[in-house]
Design goal:
heterodimer; A: 174 residues; mainly alpha; 2 strands; 2% strand; B: 446 residues; alpha+beta; six-stranded antiparallel barrel; six-stranded antiparallel beta barrel
């Protein structure tokens, strides 16, 4: 019998997670994100909180849940930086909404779809951050190196694929 | 109406969330350059809660790593400790010599500063702290250290390493995390420092770049500024004390966005990507600390002693005061086979004053002596620059430098001086004509 993932379009029911998983996975990803660059500075290119945001938004298929999840994760991430609180919150809330909406319409079970989706959302986050910092906050000193953002999207996509498969195991069977 | 909210509830929730955060941002950001300043009370409260929740895990991770590394380095990896100890002892000896060389300059500088009523700021107290975490966002170069307000830290204190500056304390969390502080690194785009180019003494403002480098952007094209020049803190920002190392100029290119300014990239001397331990400067004062004064006095005494030894050597062996071209023998370059009568290397290597420039050079002038290889014992030798004197015979004694100071050049011996090492004993009085010094001592080592 073929195993069906929660992200399969054939399983249109929303998947749920144990509350501990819902809380601990994003928190663990935020802590890991703060620790990894200290060990190896190049790992700052990763964005584990966004991977968690995309995963939970897609898996729950609820735009409201995706929005709230993205907002909370983004606000927690902002609190550890010197940026104004809300920059990542806004960007990730929007991505959570978009990811949950896409989960309704596209089959996100295959590796290709997941890779394309992740790559697109990471680029979208770069665009959103640029718009928020540069246009909304008027910080003209904020520059985006788009080649670096492309590299960031590619690296995070490569990291997201195995993480998605690991997190698939945390879903609650109903 | 109810159906509208039900139908568009997803979008409405998204709009509400975005609107709420926009208001939150508007409360925080009142000025475009407010990122390097401490937060307001309410924002600080929110931030401090998150920091209080995250830092225990960071401490745990850091403590575990430290324990493993400490076990390895303190109990297992001790093979080269003795050798390292010897190397460190040698380095201490070398640094003491360097210190003695700088001490006299420092004393003179302090005298001049006192004359100008210049108030210097000396670092008196520092707190050592360990880096336990980062912000996790590469647009925000922020570190967390394991010392906070309970250890005397406060915002805007300078954070340094022995290699150079790191940044400044941005926030402390006295209520929720008294042993944690947030450090804004110097390469964050919102960070900056007043700097001074070491050799050209040009003042500038250094800022972080979006790509994590540091750069100077307020200087116009200047041919004196070259890559490799050391950049120091100027003390003008009231955060970093004057004279701390910042970095070395890496490249200078025109800034296309802000003509006619240049973009000077600076490579930081501190390794900002792999920081383990930092020092937070918690106190500066205009007087030197007693320990620093003792160190300086010791260095000054060593310098005076070395100068006295050099003067003694120059008085007794004036030919050592310069080579053929007038340059002093480089330290540590004693001849491989010293001739008999050559002073020991400890005297030769002491700094010797250079001869004063000659107003009216003649054949007795220092440096006119032809090289020893061209001399023929008993033969007719012409000096390098032949004056009009017809009876120029042999090499002039190498006492010109000492004798030029009194304005009466001493005549050379009539007989050509043969390279007899036994005749090189210095005379007791400095006025008697000196025999020719063996040419080996004047030449640079082969």
């Amino acid at each position: 019998m073929a195993t069906r993932s929660y992200t399969s379009r054939r399983e249109l029911d929303e998947h749920t997670f144990h509350p501990a998983v819902t809380v601990l996975v994003p928190v663990a990803f935020i802590i890991l994100q703060a620790l990894l660059p200290k060990i190896f500075s190049k790992l700052a290119i990763l964005d584990l909180p966004l991977i968690a945001t995309i995963f939970f938004a897609v898996s729950r298929r609820s735009p409201i849940a995706g929005t709230i999840t993205g907002m909370i994760i983004g606000l927690l991430q902002d609190a550890l930086t010197n940026q104004p609180i809300g920059v990542n919150g806004m960007a990730k809330a929007f991505i959570g909404y978009a990811a949950a909406s896409i989960g309704f319409k596209v089959d996100v079970d295959s590796i290709t779809t997941r890779a394309v989706m992740s790559f697109g959302f990471f680029l979208l986050q770069s665009v959103l951050l640029y718009l928020i910092e540069h246009r909304l906050l008027g910080m003209h000193g904020f520059h985006v190196i788009w080649l670096h953002e492309l590299l960031r999207a590619a690296v995070n996509t490569a990291a997201a694929i195995p993480i998605f498969y690991l997190l698939d195991r945390t879903r609650t069977e109903e | 109406m109810e159906s509208f909210f039900v139908r568009f509830r997803n979008v409405l929730v998204l709009i509400a969330v975005l609107l709420a955060q926009t208001i939150l941002l508007a409360v925080q950001v009142r000025r475009a350059d407010a990122l390097d300043e401490a937060d307001g009370h309410k924002v600080l409260l929110l931030r401090s809660w998150v920091v209080a929740a995250v830092t225990p895990f960071e401490r745990l991770s850091h403590g575990t790593g430290q324990g493993i590394r400490g076990s390895w380095s303190n109990y297992i990896d001790l093979r080269n400790t003795r050798q390292k100890n010897q190397q460190l002892q040698q380095e201490i000896a070398r640094l003491r010599l360097e210190q003695s060389e700088f001490a006299e300059d420092a004393a003179q500088g302090r005298r001049l500063q006192a004359l100008l009523a210049f108030r210097e700021h000396y670092v008196t107290t520092t707190v050592a702290a360990q880096v336990i975490g980062t912000s996790g966002v590469d647009q925000s170069r922020v570190l967390y250290i394991d010392k906070g307000s309970a250890d005397g830290l406060a915002p805007d204190m300078a954070v340094i390493t022995p290699d150079g500056i790191v940044g400044k304390i941005r926030d402390v969390f006295p209520k929720t995390s008294p042993h944690t502080a947030q450090v804004l690194e110097i390469n964050d785009p919102s960070s900056g420092a007043g700097v001074l180019l070491a050799s050209t003494r040009i003042r500038a403002v250094l800022r972080g770049a979006p790509d994590g480098q540091i750069q100077i952007g307020n200087l116009t094209q200047d041919s004196r500024i070259k890559p490799g020049e050391l950049v120091l803190t100027s003390g003008g920002d009231q955060i970093f004390p004057r004279g701390l190392k910042v970095g070395i100029i890496d490249s200078i290119v025109p800034d296309p966005d802000h003509q006619p300014y240049t973009r000077i990239r600076v490579k930081p001397t501190a390794n900002l990507t792999q920081l383990e331990e930092v020092l937070v400067i918690t106190g500066v004062q205009s007087e030197m600390t007693p320990q620093a004064q003792q160190d300086l006095a010791a260095g000054l005494a060593t310098a005076i002693e070395a100068k006295r030894a050099a003067d003694l050597a120059a008085e007794r062996l004036p030919s050592l005061s310069g080579g053929v071209d007038g340059s002093a023998t480089p330290p540590g370059s004693a001849p491989a086979t010293p001739a008999p009568g050559t002073p020991p290397p400890s005297i030769v290597n002491t700094p010797v004053p250079k001869p004063l420039p000659t107003l009216h050079p003649d054949r007795y002038t220092f440096g006119m002596t032809p090289p020893a290889t061209s001399l023929t014992p008993g033969g007719h030798n012409t000096p390098t620059v032949a004056p009009t004197t017809p009876d120029s015979t042999t090499s002039a004694p190498a006492t010109g430098s000492a004798d030029a100071s009194d304005g009466e050049p001493k005549p050379a011996p009539k007989k050509p001086a043969k390279p007899k090492p036994s005749t090189t004993q210095p005379a007791d009085d400095g006025n008697s004509p000196q025999p020719s010094t063996p040419p080996q001592s004047q030449q640079p080592p082969q």
